[in-house]
Design goal:
The strands form two sheets. The chain has a six-stranded mixed sheet, with helices on both faces. A six-stranded parallel sheet has the order 9-8-7-10-11-12, sandwiched between helices. It has helices at residues 51-71, 93-104, 120-126, 147-166, 183-195, 206-215, 270-276, 284-287, 290-300, 307-327, 331-344; strands at 3-7, 14-20, 25-33, 39-46, 77-84, 110-114, 175-179, 198-202, 218-220, 233-236, 255-256, 280-281. The relative contact order is 0.12. By secondary structure, it is of the alpha/beta class. The chain is globular. It binds nicotinamide-adenine-dinucleotide (NAD).
């Protein structure tokens, strides 16, 4: 039977732990803010080593969703869910049904979607127990996997950053190092290949790297070396925390722009470390907003055209980079201030 335990966490509207021993289910949902609209965010499944780690991750991710919606001009709030478990071995039908019951117990305060470790087909099972789910498959009336839209947004952000740093927005002939060729990294690599970009890739799963190499001309590199590639752009598309005191001194790229949420391990110090190295960081929650926009446009506004919204990412990146240059602040700190302003209006 599902057991739901609320936690009181400062700055969050709602945080709940859900457990059901019969399905080996252990998850946390965090609703950061519903000030601008319903809280929407993906479900991440990951083999966290402790509940404490999972809680820390879900809180950071939920807050980033609030900022993402705010800076992207969406009438949405921010929330997120994490399931503790290995998506490769622990993801069962009964576990996904428990997730559906858990979401349903919140009566619409949290609207689910997919994140790392969860597929649209998994959401179809979750949706058997609750209607508060977006991004189910077409067959189930949803708008499906938002990863292509996320990749398109990153491409738009990369173009804006290239224009800002290198004087032209062309990606032809540029070198991009992608960390993580999962659903977003894969789509991004496809788009970059079409642009004539030279690619380096790394992934925890060697089979992913092999698959990529069969599909595009990409050079596979060891996991520990991908951030050290002499590239124009380093694109973190795995999990958070890759920009930290150990990795920043070894980065060789001119720009960092990728899908991974919460790329800085220490959000107070690391953005300044990167700025001191003269490497431009494009805030993750601006460039990876394409997925949220896909769900918002198709399932909340019930509209079809995404392109103007994706172009808006290019404009937002330009605005944030210009303001950060003028104020000599790291782009993430500038973006946080701009998102906060929108939340306070
Ligand atoms: P995914 O699980 O499909 O892909 C992640 C890939 O990264 C996997 O192939 C995994 O093996 C690999 N990986 C994990 N740790 C790694 C490491 N240390 N080094 C190299 N590879 C590693 O997830 P996804 O949907 O592609 O999302 C990627 C990131 O983008 C996540 O942080 C997610 O939160 C974020 N994001 C995704 C979307 C979306 O639309 N899917 C939207 C916004 C943000």
């Amino acid at each position: 039977m599902l057991q739901v335990t609320p936690l009181k966490i400062k700055g969050f509207e709602l945080v709940v732990i859900g457990k059901d021993s019969s399905s080996n289910f252990h998850a946390i949902i965090a609703v950061h803010s519903t000030k601008l609209g319903p809280s929407l965010g993906g479900i991440r499944m990951w083999p966290y080593t402790s509940e404490k780690d999972a809680l820390q991750d879900v809180l950071r991710l939920a807050e980033a969703m609030t900022k993402k919606a705010a800076i992207s001009g969406l009438q949405m709030g921010g929330g997120k869910a994490v399931i503790i478990g290995d998506p490769g071995t622990d993801k069962t039908r009964s576990l996904l049904c428990s997730m559906g019951e858990f979401i349903d117990s919140l009566q619409g305060k949290y609207l689910a979607a997919k994140d790392s470790g969860i597929l649209p087909e998994d959401l179809d099972i979750v949706a058997e127990k609750t209607r508060h789910v977006t991004g189910t498959t077409d067959k189930h009336g949803g708008s499906g996997d938002p990863s292509l839209a996320t990749a398109k947004g990153i491409l738009a952000g990369m173009q804006a950053a290239c224009k800002f740093v290198l004087g032209t927005n062309t990606l032809k002939g540029r070198v991009v190092a992608i960390q993580g060729v999962g659903q977003v990294g894969w789509n991004l690599g496809n788009l970059l290949t079409q642009q004539g970009t030279k690619l380096f890739v790394a992934d925890l799963q060697p089979s992913r790297v092999k698959q990529v190499q069969r599909s595009w001309k990409a050079t596979g590199v060891p996991l520990s070396k991908i951030h050290q590639i002499q590239a124009d752009i380093f694109a973190p598309c795995a999990l958070g925390g890759i920009l930290n005191a150990d990795t920043i001194p070894h980065l060789q790229a001119k720009i960092v722009a990728g899908a991974a949420n919460n790329q800085f391990f220490d959000e107070e110090q690391d953005p300044y470390r990167l700025m001191k190295r003269n490497i431009l960081h494009v805030p993750d929650y601006i460039v990876n907003a394409g997925g949220l926009i896909h769900l918002y446009v198709h399932e909340i506004l019930h509209q079809q055209r995404l392109a103007p919204w994706i172009s808006n990412i290019e404009r937002t990146v330009h605005q944030v980079l210009s303001a950060s240059f003028q104020k000599q602040l790291p782009p993430l700190i500038m973006a946080n201030q701009m998102a906060l302003q929108r939340l306070e209006l």
